[in-house]
Amino acid sequence: MIESSNWISPIAFSLGPINIYWYGIGYLLTFVLSFIIWSKYLYTPFIKWQLDTVDNPTEHKKSFLDNFLTFVVLGVILGGRLGYVLFYNLSEYLSNPIAILKLWEGGMSFHGGIIGLIIGMIIFARRNRVLFLSLTDMLCLVAPIGIFFGRVSNFINIELVGRTTTSPLGIVFPGDTVARHPSQLYQAGLEGILLGIIMFFTFKLAIKNYSSRVGILSLFFLFFYGLFRFIVEFFREPDIQLGFIFLGLSMGQLLSLGIVFLIVILLYMRHSYSHKNT
Fold first, then answer.
1. How many of the other CB atoms lie within 10 Å of CB of 104?
2. What tens digit of pLDDT does each residue of 138-169 get?
3. What pTM value is reported for the model?
């Protein structure tokens, strides 16, 4: 059991009256690293093969990725925030709508972020005449980076805390009197590091014949994310305003089960379709 007397401040540093939070730094690092990876490794195999002619490939690549990043940022932030409001704390925000804009106070839903990204990518794909699934594949390869930084930030902010435990891994968080699972770090390890490794090797296999495997990276990502999230939720305290929803399962587990079942169906349909056409 670990007791934390000197906790890391949620504020990384201050610039005059402006406080810079670890949460914001995590988002910034995610977007910067994602842009670098897309630019160096993913644009050519995922996008360039779909374009018949490009007058200026270098300029097209830059403008494409700049606009793509803009849609990603908006999708993540708007979808994640509205998802949290709708799925987890609707009554409170209806009584105080202005609080929806207070992003610095925390409260983002991964499932809502997915919905926001899907909507943003559909619009972006239509505007740029590229395959929607090739865009989601690009996203899924870097998503574990964002999940990792996000969960570490949750840990620093003492958000989404774990259930009580007598395990040696338990931590007595500041302001608490009992030891809890550091479930945020469990998620950072499973949904960030392990999922990132799985996606890397899936990419290595799929890229050899990508034109016939478009979308497989997205399906694998959602399946393993849903599976890992479902497992970790057994160690995480359910949202206090919701508690356990059904059969002792939390909202996060029910949403994750829905994702897993949907992906299993889609993978089966994809396999059946491929088998009929070979």
1. 11
2. 999 999 999 999 899 889 988 888 999 988 88
3. 0.81
Domain boundaries of the chain, sorted by first residue: 2-276
Q: What is the pLDDT of residues 95-146, one digit of tens each?
A: 777 777 766 556 677 678 888 888 988 999 998 888 999 999 999 999 999 9
For tokens 């670890």, name the residue. 22
Residues 6+ apart with CB under 8 A from 252: 111, 229, 233, 236, 238
Q: How far is it between the farthest Cα atoms of the chain? A: 65
How far is residue 24's CA from residue 83's CA, in Å, rounded to a whole number?
19
Give the separation between CA 274 and CA 276, rounded to whole angstroms: 6
